[in-house]
Amino acid sequence: MIEMKNVTKYYGNYRALDDVSFSVQAGEVLGLLGPNGAGKTTAMRILTCFLPASSGSVSVDGFDVFDDSMEVRRRLGYLPETPPVYPEMTVRSYLKFVADIREVPSNDCNRRVDAVIERAGLVDHQQRVIGTLSKGYRQRVGLAQALVHDPAVLILDEPTVGLDPNQIIEIRNLIRDLAKDHTVILSTHILSEVSMTCKRVVIINEGRIVAEDSVENLERQGGAATTFRIGLRPASLDWKSCLSGIDGVKIESEHTDGPIVRFTMSLPTHAAYDAVFHSVVGKGHVFTEITPSRASLEEVFLRLTRSEENGNGGGNGSGSSATEGGNAA
Amino acid sequence: MKIFAIAKKELQTYFFSPVAYLVFASFLLVVGYLFWVVLVSSKLASLEPLLYNAAFVLLLVSPVLTMRLISEERRAGTMELLLTSPISPSEIVIGKFLACFILYLILIILTFQYPLIMSFYADKLDMGPIMSGYIGLILLGAAFISLGLFASSLCENQMIAAMLSFGGMLCFWIFGWAKYALDNAFGEILGKLSLFERYSEFIKGVVDSGNVLFFVVFIVLWLFMATRVVESDRWR
Question: Of the candidates A94, A217, A115, which has an alpha carbon nearest to the alpha carbon of residue B78?
Answer without folding.
Answer: A94
